[in-house]
Amino acid sequence: MTFYQELQLSSTGSKQLIRSTTDPKEKRRHILIYNFKVYLVMAFCVAVVSMYSKLTGSSNSVVGVTVLLAVLVLRQADFGIRTTHGLLSIAGHTGVRAVSVGAYNNQFELLVKDLKRFKDRKYRILLLSPSRTRGNHLAENHPFCLPTA
Fold first, then answer.
1. What is the pTM of this model?
2. Cα dist. 117→53, 56, 114, 125, 133 in Å?
């Protein structure tokens, strides 16, 4: 089995290959390739999240992690289509849009204006408040906000 073919094995396949190998030199080779694959995936994850954070802002790094996890989970999914369409199907199934906004320090009316604009565009908005008091104030004074329980 070539180096590339071993990289293509699933985690279970690699572990079975390591277990079934009796030659110590060959077993060590399989273990090194398996570890290389693990570190390669880890480097890919760091690169994707770093790139996503640079493109969309550090406040959206959680979205980058979510997109990465979706890619890692769905890359093995069988949607009944050809392999050449795999990347397109992953993008179609995991379309996530995040909007990075600046700080609204002492500019509450600017926040209200942006929220109305997002609502007009039919965005789903999750607005978090650092305190219950501020959250209640926002919900009471602005009819487009729904209070939470």
1. 0.46
2. 25, 20, 5, 11, 25
